[in-house]
Amino acid sequence: MRGPDQPASASGILREHWREGRKLAALPPDLRPRDRIEGYAIQAEIETRSDQPLFGWKIAATSEAGQRHINVAGPMAGRILAETVLPVGGTAAMAGNAMRVAEPEFAFRLGKDLLPRPTPYDVGEVLAAVETLHPAIEIPDSRFADFVSAGEAQLIADNACAHLFVLGAPATADWRSRDLIEERPRITLRGETFIGHGRNVLGDPLIALAWLVNELRGLGIIARAGQVITTGTCHPPLPIGSGDVMEADFGDLGQVSVRFG
Predict the structure, then answer these.
(1) How would DSSP label each residue in the chain?
(2) Which of 81, 146, 218, 261 is deepest in the core (most CB within 10 A)?
(3) What does the pLDDT read at residue 1?
């Protein structure tokens, strides 16, 4: 039987490895999560070790390419800690990063709380709670040396591979009247241009946004006003290295960039 301190003990190991840039093969058998619920219980402990309010939430594996990258069958939610957020144009340290990819994303800041309830939220209800849309770049990583074989429950415990995050300024264009499915941000990296597509994000970034809120609802967690939800990559994860600069141009929805050091 698992002891009551299992989530905290497992989370402590993962956080220590994250802080020190080290990798592990797997959590010890007596601390290893057996399913998504146990994975999320371990993940929740990471928030208690931060001295700042939770910045927001991420979704891992919203595209088929992202699912293949970490060998899972569907999306997973993770926490964005305030201490992992970089300024636009800032430098993301590459030391210890094994995934070595970056992902351009649509992010949304909530303007009001969405409370847990028995019935799911629909897209319209979630959209009505959104205050602003932002371009963003996520730089994921895992604490597991072989993240491809770590499995869904351990990757959820590993904060759904959250690592570093860059949030652009809020869009000033009327994004609510746009079909985000057909938005095609241009990403430049090492002199090459890549074209993202809104449809890569669970078919629609707004569907991904609602998925996250309902995942929290099922866990009994409030999606709080002021928190940012980033909805997953709109382009297959792009390999990065030290010295690279990624710029993601979402047109009149804004631009965001990050350097890798």
Answers:
(1) ---TTHHHHHHHHHHHHHHHT--BS---TTTS--SHHHHHHHHHHHHHT-SS---EEEEE--SHHHHHHHT-SS-EEEEE-GGGEEPTT-EE--TT-SS-EEEEEEEEEESS-B---SSPPPHHHHHHTEEEEEEEEEE---SBTTTTSS-HHHHHHTGGG--EEEE-PPP-S-GGGS-GGG---EEEETTEEEE--GGGTTTSHHHHHHHHHHHHHHHT--B-TT-EEEEEESSPPEE--TT-EEEEE-GGG-EEEEEE-
(2) 81
(3) 41
> Please, which residues have CB within 8 angstroms of residue 208's CB and are 6 or more apart in sequence?
59, 62, 75, 201, 202, 231, 232
Core vs surface per residue 176-199: b (16+ CB within 10 A) or e = eebebeebebbbebeeeeeebebb
- The identity of residue 159, as a single letter, is N
Six-digit token string for 176: 């609510």
Q: What is the mean pLDDT of each run of 10 residues along the chain (261 residues)?
A: 78 92 94 96 94 96 77 90 98 94 98 98 98 98 91 95 97 97 98 97 96 98 98 95 98 98 96
Could you tell me which of 195, 225, 235 has the C-alpha nearest to residue 69? 235
